[in-house]
Write a structure and sequence with these properties.
Helix content: 10-25%
Radius of gyration: 26 Å
Shape: globular
Number of helices: 19
CATH superfamily of the largest domain: Peptidase S8/S53 domain
Distance between the termini: 18 Å
Number of strands: 37
CATH topology of the largest domain: Rossmann fold
Oligomer: single chain
Largest sheet: 8 strands, mixed
Number of domains: 4
Length: 760
């Protein structure tokens, strides 16, 4: 935490504005529910004027007025001004402006969701809003050929210089509360990063011919190619700020989107009242909008999942049945296959092969140990020029490139499940193969090698949750299983910004229209597209019903391939085709989530920090376990050394056959699980029936996870909800100390411009 606090301090110092000797920082001020009859901006000016002393100061301080979907504003304030505002009547909370980070065809066909199954006209009325780094509107993926005008419900705008919307990309806005720009930033919704174009086309891109510099040639498309796209650019080279995220949520809700896709999040656990995505998505849920979010790229560490609020859909990342490989051929004829998206053709020519440690740039202070990792500046260009360099770790390749090398063979233990793209001929082999390559270099007078152009191989093990995908359990509410499900997030081909670097080397000047990248940022828009497909079929379903349909019909993953089980994949791998007809759904609405928050320890005062609603109260609700929230999964967190003892209550809504009878069974390897009643019958669509699940067992200690499921079936539909039991530290399930006032956030996060997972 010391390092993170230092980063935070440095960030604030650089960002601060002087105000009577005190630094000014952006803060978000909440004022409860919105007032339809009062102009938001004038009200916010008045509030600020009472603290800052003049209308001019108030106007200069104000950055955003939130008044379309919830009431509040973002402004630059000193600590004294924050303290004064926090005590004013009508102010619910004052929160610092957190910095978040971006969390990225074959994938849809791999899921069994072909264009033929989709239908020719599905999704034309559905609008997917993407909070990301913008979009490149001229990409073929976003052509509006054959599209009619936007849906009548649409109220959005297209704002920004040198940017034009069409009948596919029907809305575009951009936000930058920081006020500073990197030279690579474009001050409009236009995407200079590539990440936003990639996620948008993954969710709803047109069907177009695509490849990455000749590799993976084929057709790229989104989940619902006929869906409309609305862009809310909140991410820049410096990061994605919470005040911008909330402004985008406010606009997206008012504009009329149906799905909000958010491939970004915090690196550190935040209480719901401190989390801009949790707050913004709560308001979206109130308006019937599904929010799909990425789980984060901090795996496989436990408790690393982000975006864990129960009213949002949290998506892990898994592989598809295609992997990118590139082979290194040594002078002795040995061939080593590694993972890499390598488009560089050395024409089969062999080049001298050198170990990085033998090419140390001593004049720059590098020694053999440092040079063995080939960082930028550590290699002697006279020794490296015209050679292939063997490096003992994974990097962006710039060290070899700038030292005039022609290629690099990297060895790394963490490169087993995804490929990256580089600015020169590259392959990444295992540590064992790297040792064999090193033995060849040491045993040969004139070692040489070549690197072949990349190929694509079948991955028969897919889908498997990738190592970098963040894992559960839920760090804030152990009784809610997160992530919810998994979707393709590895080696995904989709649209790209032609001004963004096409490799992980940020100064790569080549230009591409499509790129192959990996991340939960890529799995999130797959789930967003799937949600849009379900929404198109069932426009009146609630966000909870749509999420339930996707979760309970998910493809069950092989537990033998996943040490973390449901903490890796949640309910399983999305199956959009089945989700349209789930049979039953676990529905939930605002009142259910308010009750959940009250049981989490929120009171009438702190509840407003999330809901912005002066009418919501906790009444006599006492803090307790979240076992009665109508969630499509079951999570039982047991304090270490205690007995297993819990009762879950659930209600299912019939969305299948009017007359149907479901049997309910528990599948669990241990513990005693009973379900009452064991059968439920329906006589109409929309009818609701409840059941209870009782779980009892002996004391357990240091139990990472026990996995089971509750399954309901009428012989046609199979409604499956995972059940997990695991131990936590004493008191962790009862941490109900929700602060009355916002505490300062001691953390910062940076993100890679390409928005992809990158090994450190």
């Amino acid at each position: 935490m010391t390092t993170h606090f230092l980063l935070y301090t440095l960030f604030l110092t650089a960002f601060a504005l002087s105000c009577h000797g005190q630094e000014r920082k952006v803060h978000i001020v909440y004022m409860g529910e919105r007032h339809h009859n009062l102009p938001a901006q004038s009200t916010h000016h008045s509030v600020l004027q009472s603290v800052l002393g003049s209308f001019k100061s108030a106007k200069e301080s104000l950055i955003y007025s939130y008044g379309k979907s919830f009431n509040g504003f973002a402004a630059k304030l000193s600590d004294e001004e924050v303290a004064e505002l926090a005590e004013m009547e009508g102010i619910v909370s004052v929160i610092p402006n957190h910095r978040l980070k971006l969390h990225t065809t074959r994938s849809w066909d791999f899921m069994g969701f072909s264009k033929g199954q989709l239908g020719a006209s599905v999704g034309g009325e559905v609008v997917i809003g993407l909070l990301d780094s913008g979009i490149w509107p001229e990409s073929d993926s976003f052509s509006d050929d054959g599209f009619g005008p936007p849906p009548k419900k649409w109220k959005g705008k297209c704002k920004g210089a040198n940017f034009t919307c069409n009948n596919k990309v029907i809305g575009a806005r951009y936000y930058n509360s920081d006020g500073s720009y990197d030279p690579t930033d474009i001050q409009s919704p236009r995407d200079s990063n590539g990440h936003g174009s990639h996620t948008a086309s993954t969710a709803a891109g047109r069907e177009v011919p695509a490849s990455y510099l000749g590799l993976a040639s084929g057709t790229a498309r989104g989940g619902v190619p006929n869906a409309r796209i609305a862009v809310y650019k909140v991410c820049w080279a410096s990061g994605c700020y919470s005040s911008d995220v909330l402004a985008a949520f406010d606009d997206a809700i008012a504009d009329g989107v149906d799905i909000i896709s958010v491939s970004l999040g915090s690196d550190f656990p935040l209480q719901y009242l401190e989390d801009p995505i949790a707050i913004g998505s709560f308001h979206a849920m109130k308006y019937g909008i599904v929010t799909s979010t990425s789980a984060g790229n901090s795996g496989p560490a436990p408790l690393s999942v982000s975006n864990y609020a129960p009213w949002i859909m949290t998506v892990a990342a898994s592989t598809i049945d295609r992997k990118f490989v590139a082979k290194a051929v040594l002078g002795n004829g040995e061939v080593y296959s590694g993972l890499s998206i390598n488009n560089f053709d050395l024409n089969g020519k062999s080049y001298p092969l050198i170990w990085g440690g033998d090419a140390a740039n001593f004049s720059a202070g590098a020694n053999s140990e440092i040079a063995s990792f080939c960082p930028n500046g550590a290699l002697n260009s006279h020794k490296v020029k015209g050679k292939i360099v063997f490096c003992e770790t994974i990097d962006d390749g710039s060290g070899v490139l700038l030292a005039n090398g022609v290629g690099t063979i990297m060895a790394d233990s963490s490169s087993s499940d995804l490929a990256l793209n580089y600015p020169l001929a590259t392959t990444v082999v295992t540590i064992g193969d790297g040792q064999r390559i090193m033995n060849y270099i040491r045993s040969t007078a004139n070692p040489n090698a070549t690197i072949l152009v990349g190929e694509t191989d079948m991955d028969i093990m897919a889908p498997v949750v990738v190592s970098f995908s963040s894992r559960g359990p839920n760090p804030i509410t152990p009784d809610i299983l997160k992530p919810d499900l998994t979707a393709p997030g590895v080696d995904i081909l989709a649209a790209w910004s032609p001004v963004a670097p096409p490799s992980i080397y940020e100064d790569d000047t080549r230009s591409v229209e499509f790129n192959v990248i990996s991340g939960t940022s890529m799995s999130c828009p797959h789930a967003s597209g799937a949600a849009a497909y379900v929404k198109a079929a069932h426009p009146n379903w609630s966000p909870a019903a749509i999420k339930s349909a996707l979760m309970t019909t998910a493809h069950v993953l092989d537990p033998k391939k996943h040490e973390d089980l449901e903490f890796a994949y949640g309910s399983g791998h999305i199956n959009p085709w089945k989700a349209v007809d789930p049979g039953l759904v676990f529905d939930a609405h605002v009142a259910d989530y308010v009750h959940f928050l009250c049981k989490q320890g929120y009171n009438t005062t702190t509840l407003k920090l999330i809901t912005g609603d002066n009418s919501s109260t906790c009444g006599r609700t006492k803090p307790g376990r979240a076992w009665d929230l109508n969630y499509p999964s079951f999570s039982l967190a047991v304090e270490d050394g205690q007995h297993i003892n819990a009762v879950f209550t659930r209600t299912v809504t019939n969305v299948g056959s009017p007359n149907s009878t479901y049997t309910i069974k528990a599948h669990t390897p241990s513990s005693s699980v009973s379900v009452k009643p064991s059968t439920i019958s329906f006589s109409s669509v929309g009818e609701k029936k409840s059941f209870t699940v009782k779980v009892i067992g002996p004391p357990i200690a240091q139990q990472p996870i026990m996995s089971g499921a509750i399954v309901l079936t009428d012989g046609i539909h199979l409604v499956r909800s995972p059940l997990v039991i695991y131990t936590i530290l004493p008191g962790a399930a009862h941490s109900y100390s929700i602060p009355e006032k916002k505490t300062s956030f001691k953390g910062s996060s940076l993100y890679h411009r390409n928005g992809i997972f990158r090994h450190n």
